[in-house]
Specification:
about 400 residues, alpha+beta, Chitinase A, domain 3, four-stranded antiparallel sheet
Length: about 400
């Protein structure tokens, strides 16, 4: 009995040093494993967060445009692109346009401030509310620039003199100096200007009576001879820069094939007189490629006038096709008049009804103040420091960001 009692009251033996050491090592290993797992998980979460920041937040904070001391980040640029494409799909065109708008708006704000012209903050808020626009920085800037531009135009209008030397003219654009001389003679013999305009003008909708205009508001070629204009006289002046709605083809077909069509070389000339002149040079033995390079206004001039093989409809002109596909081989066509294409160069006929100091009408004031504003803005741009860091990749990224909002 006594032995059983002794056995029941015997205490558990303490672990040996060896057992304790082993247990402690196991606990230490377990803690290390748990810490490693925690660090690993934190790393994954941290990396994911960094990736999100790097892909979505960080680019928006990147400075993309600087106008003097004012910087604009990608976030502002994306907002501007979004604003300009509310009713359109964003594209590379709009991406570039938005960048230009940021520069121009800031130039207007800075230049206006230098002139003491400021936009009324309450008026800006009222306009945003009136047009139901978002009350964000971009829309505030858009409305501010619009109000400032109106103030600037009003200022430039106020700087115009009440009167300027002007001429009351009616004009007509014809295809060549030869035609101009013929029409001028008819007008001086008493032909009605409106009737001649209808018969001879290359652009009847752009001619006729222009009214009182200063030299700056006339077609540039006429403005350049303004000082020599005399009341009651009819004059002519050639304008090499003007584009008119007519041209003349010289066409040669050098080969034909049932499948390929016709092998063609051609020239586009600005007038019948010039086309006749060039055709005579060809008939006298002139080299087609050389003459095309010298006289033709068609893009094929860089290839000696050669279009190569074409089928009907490929030229883009029914008039050209009708002439070309009915030509015999190796025969230079007569000049083919085509009013479906344009060519450069023409001659103005100017009938000077009156000339002298005359009050500026509202239309002329608006045009002149607009020119002064554009000149002011151009000079402001030239004197400013503008840095545009946007490239095609960044603009494409911005387009994608705008699309995500839709």
């Amino acid at each position: 009995m006594s032995k059983n009692k002794e056995k029941q009251t015997t205490t558990r033996r303490a672990p040996s040093k060896h057992q304790l050491s082993r247990w402690q090592r196991q606990q230490k290993v377990s803690r290390i494993i748990m810490i490693s797992i925690a660090v690993f998980l934190a790393g994954i979460i941290g990396y994911s967060g960094y990736g999100y920041y790097n892909d979505n937040i960080r680019p928006l904070k990147q400075v993309v445009i600087e106008v003097n001391d004012t910087a604009f980040d990608m976030g502002y640029y994306v907002d501007m692109l979004d604003a300009h494409t509310r009713n359109a799909d964003p594209s590379q065109f709009y991406a570039q346009y938005a960048a230009n708008q940021i520069e121009q708006i800031e130039l207007i704000k800075q230049g206006s401030s230098d002139m003491g012209i400021e936009a009324d903050g309450e008026e800006v808020k009222a306009k945003i509310k009136e047009f139901d626009l978002p009350d964000s920085r971009v829309y505030q800037d858009l409305v501010t620039a619009d109000l400032l531009q109106k103030e600037l135009l009003s200022y430039f209008t106020s700087q115009l003199p009440p009167e300027m030397e002007q001429a009351d003219i009616e004009t007509m654009l014809v295809e060549s100096q030869e035609v101009a001389n013929e029409v001028k003679a008819s007008l001086e013999a008493g032909q009605d200007f409106s009737a001649a305009l209808e018969e001879f003008s290359c652009t009847p909708d752009a001619g006729g009576e222009l009214g009182w205009l200063p030299a700056e508001q006339m077609p540039s070629a006429i403005g350049e001879i303004f000082s020599s204009l005399e009341a009651g006289e009819i004059t002519t002046v050639y304008d090499k820069e003007i584009t008119k709605e007519i041209g003349y083809w010289l066409i040669e077909v050098t080969d034909k094939d049932d499948e390929k069509g016709i092998f063609v070389r051609t020239m586009l000339l600005p007038s019948e007189a010039r086309a006749i002149e060039v055709r005579e040079k060809l008939e006298a033995g002139g080299d087609f490629a050389e003459l095309a390079g010298e006289y033709s206004q068609d893009a094929s001039k860089d290839n000696g006038g050669e279009l190569g093989w074409i089928t009907e409809g490929a030229s883009g002109s029914d008039i050209f096709d009708e002439a070309a596909f009915n030509l015999e081989l190796n025969v230079i066509s007569a000049p083919v008049k085509d009013d479906s294409i344009g060519s450069s160069g023409g001659c103005w006929i100017v009938d000077v009804l009156d000339k002298g100091q005359h009050e500026l009408n509202d239309s002329v004031k608006e045009s002149l103040s607009g020119e002064d504003f554009n000149l002011w803005l151009s000079q402001l741009r030239e004197s400013s420091t503008i840095n545009n860091y946007l490239d095609e990749t960044m603009m494409s990224w911005a387009v994608t960001e705008v699309l995500k909002r839709r």
